[in-house]
Amino acid sequence: MLRARSEVEGQLRFDRVLKRYQFEDLKLAGEASGEPLKGKTLNFSAQGQLLVDLAANVAEWNGLKLSANQLRALGEIKARELDKDANELVSRLNGSSKGMMFEELNLKLDGSTFTGKLGVSDFAKQALRADLKGDKLDLNRYLPPKTQDSAAAARKAEVKDSIAGAGKDGSTPLPNKPTQQAWSDDKVLPVDQLRKLDLQLALSLAQLTYDKHQFSDVNLKANGRGGLITVEEARGKLQGGSFVSSGRIDVRQAEPMLSLEQRLSRMPLEPLLKKDDQPSPIKGQLDLDAKFNTRGNSQKAWIEALNGNASFVLNDGVLVDANLEQQLCRGIATLNRKALSNPPTGKDTPFRELKGSLSVRDGVAHNPDLKAQVPGL
After folding, report:
1. Which of 24, 171, 197, 322 has its CA 20 to 30 A from that of 287?
2. CA dihedral 221, 242, 258, 208 (to 10 degrees)
3. Residue 246: left if φ>0, alpha if ψ -120 to 50, beta else—which one?
4. Residue 290's pLDDT is what?
5. Is 313 exposed, middle or buried (0-12, 13-18, 19+ CB in 10 A)?
6. What is the per-residue pLDDT across 332-365, written as a single tens digit (0 to 9) for each?
7. What is the Cα–Cα distance from 301 to 312, expressed in whole angstroms?
8. What is residue 1's DSSP assignment?
9. Are 147 and 186 in contact (CB under 8 A)?
10. Which of the residue ranges 66-75, 88-97, 114-123 has the most confident prediction, judged by mean pLDDT?
11. For residues 316 and 313, what is the distance between their CA atoms, to the nearest angstrom?
């Protein structure tokens, strides 16, 4: 049995014609006791400005102040497009003066459904805990719009001009090294916040949309404490291929340390390499094993301090719009001062085999064992 007493103050205004309802200067206070509270008394209060405008399909609770014994909450709640599928939250709330958790969570948000648990286990330590399963998630809804990097754009234009000036017969010398800045010195990691982070995260998604890519069977497990953030596992599938990776960000010292292990299996290259204004130069399914580490807190620092190794195999590979056999045969015929007889057909170069390894030392990559086999060569 639960016993409760409450008092409400405020001014209620409503216009049925405009379908607009306001509760100004809301003050709700009271106390509750009984068996669900295990003999304890709960003192609660709420304040704020409430607005529901059904004509505009909005609802707001501004100047929100909530208290329940030692628990305090400040903020605002706003809902838009009430005429469309509403976001829903169904959960069992487990809270105390130390933390608050949403148990048995069932959340519907922007067409996605999540189940599991979510909350803060310790307010003082900002200990975030999440164990969620979702049917789908479109990250494009929540990421900031892409901004144009002026240095990167200048470098890209310089490289494009160099390539455009190269002859297609292979007679033009290699272009000069790009002079525009390739990597930014801007700080990337919020080090102070990461050092305070206390996180345990487990997330699984049946479908994940990022940029223009549709991933499936995505699973992520991560934790962070005392300045060490570990991605125990990040795995998923893309168009028949799969990936699994793990990594660490260590900010316990002045200079951040980062490491990454990555494995790709039959990962299709075309959807990853093609752009709106440019097709993918290579097609095929990539097998890759890589292990890298670096340090610092900028793109430039990461590249200059990058170390590690990788091995790769391209399955069913095709070099698009470049027939290497034809170019080689034409070169041999030219050297022999003969006409090219029975020129190879097709504009692409299929690879019977393409594999090799990369060794990266202090930002410089070496490929000592590239092996490629193409028809006729």
Report:
1. 322
2. -60
3. beta
4. 97
5. middle
6. 667 767 766 666 566 778 888 889 999 999 999 9
7. 25
8. -
9. no
10. 114-123
11. 10
Report residue 330 CA to chain centroid gap.
47
Q: State the CB neighbour count (10 A cutoff) for residue 293.
A: 16
Q: What is the spatial distance between Cα 260 and Cα 255, in angstroms, rounded to a whole number?
A: 17
C-alpha of 328 from chain center: 43
- What pLDDT score was predicted for residue 377? 64
For 351, the enclosing helix (H) or strand (E) is none
Maximal C-alpha separation, the chain: 103
Name the residue among 51, 3, 9, 5 with its Cα closest to residue 27: 9
From the list 91, 103, 8, the residue with the least C-alpha distance to 46 is 8
**Cα separations (Å) of 272 from 261, 267, 278?**
19, 9, 12
Residue 339 is predicted with a pLDDT of 67
- For residues 158 and 163, what is the distance between their CA atoms, to the nearest angstrom? 9
Instruction: Give the H/E segment covering residue 218.
Output: strand 213-225
| 201: alpha, beta or left? (left if phi > 0; alpha if psi -120 to 50) | beta
Residue type, 151: A
Q: How many residues does the chain have?
A: 377
The mean pLDDT of 96-115, rounded to a whole number, is: 78
Least Cα distance to 28 among 52, 12, 40 occurs for 12
CB 209 within 8 A of CB 138: yes
pTM: 0.67
Quote the CA–CA distance of 17 and 14 in Å, as a whole number: 9
Place of tokens 């916040």: 193
Q: Measure the CA–CA gap between 313 and 164, rounded to whole angstroms.
A: 30
Are 128 and 101 in contact by the 8 Å Cβ rule? The answer is no
Name the one residue in this structure whose structure tokens are 């490629």: 372
192 phi/psi in degrees, rounded to 5: -60, -45
What is the rounded average pLDDT of the residues 104-110? Answer: 79
Q: Answer whether 308's CB lies under 8 Å from 293's CB.
A: yes
Can you give the pLDDT at residue 328? 66
